[in-house]
């Protein structure tokens, strides 16, 4: 969970294949991947819409993920490819001004911790 919290920090490094595997596992758990380990567009759209401001951001975010997937489609190892897609997605969100702020992440983290 700590890795995911730091994901949006500017100095976060996308170096460990295991993180790609963890993202893959988490994405599969939420039914966000197809059988070929690519984004399931419809399910991802619904998942994003379940968050605050998701209705506004879902189409744009799905498009950004799709574009990143296309850039890294040649990578055969699912964990490495998903890690590269995550890195690309983060950069795209930052360039488009839709990356969450640290304050927003802290609030989410606290709410998640309190709900356990």
Total number of beta strands: 0
Mean pLDDT: 89
What structural class do you assign from the helix and strand content? mainly alpha
Sheet with the most strands, sense and barrel status: none
How far apart the termini lie comes to 14 Å
Q: So, CATH architecture?
A: Orthogonal Bundle
Multimeric state of these chains? single chain
CATH level-1 class? Mainly Alpha
**Morphology:** globular
Cα gyration radius (Å)? 14 Å
- Sheet-strand content, in percent, reads under 5%
Helix content: 55-70%
Supply the number of structural domains. 1
Please identify which CATH superfamily we are dealing with. Pheromone/general odorant binding protein domain
Count the helices. How many? 6
User: Could you say what the CATH topology is called?
Assistant: Recoverin, domain 1
- Order of helix and strand elements from N to C terminus: HHHHHH
Ranges where pLDDT stays below 50 over 5 or more residues in a row are none
Outline of the structure:
The chain is built from 6 helices and no strands. 66% of the residues lie in helices and 0% in strands. InterPro entries: Odorant/phero-bd_Lep, PBP/GOBP, PBP_GOBP_sf.
